[in-house]
Amino acid sequence: MSYLVEGACQCGQVSYKLHQPPKMVLACHCIECQKLSTAPFSVTAIVASEDIEISGELKEWSRLAESGNKNYAKFCPDCGNRVYHYNPDDQSTLKLKLKASSPDDHSVFEPSAHVWVSEKQDWYQIPEGVKVFEKQP
């Protein structure tokens, strides 16, 4: 049985095909993700780089995380949608942090854990039975 989830940025210039399920899906409540998503948290699917095909031109932006890790973001130069993040120094896993967008099957990107809840919006209630981490696990 084949696995395929497709997504794209808002304007469609950048698209992806995910050929394997994410290794993990996280809802991040850090202030930076709140800014990124203009929402109380952002959803990130951890995927192996060999499990995804990305089409279209991407631009890059980077910052240092609180931990000192590098956080590089790839985004569509036309509409500005983030497509994925990665740490260029993390060669152990070669994983991408996919900013899941426009999936055909929304359940694929349901978070199994919430991270950085120390910066969570007070009014948001995390669903029962989901793992919770004060910062990065």
Automatic annotation (TrEMBL):
Keyword Metal-binding: yes
Sorted UniProt keywords: Lyase, Metal-binding, Zinc
Pfam families: GFA
Domain CENP-V/GFA, residue spans: 5-110
Protein's recorded name: CENP-V/GFA domain-containing protein
GO molecular function list: carbon-sulfur lyase activity; metal ion binding
Family in the record: Belongs to the Gfa family.
InterPro entries found in the cross-reference section: CENP-V/GFA (IPR006913), Mss4-like_sf (IPR011057)
Record flagged with keyword Manganese: no
Record lineage: Bacteria, Pseudomonadati, Pseudomonadota, Gammaproteobacteria, Vibrionales
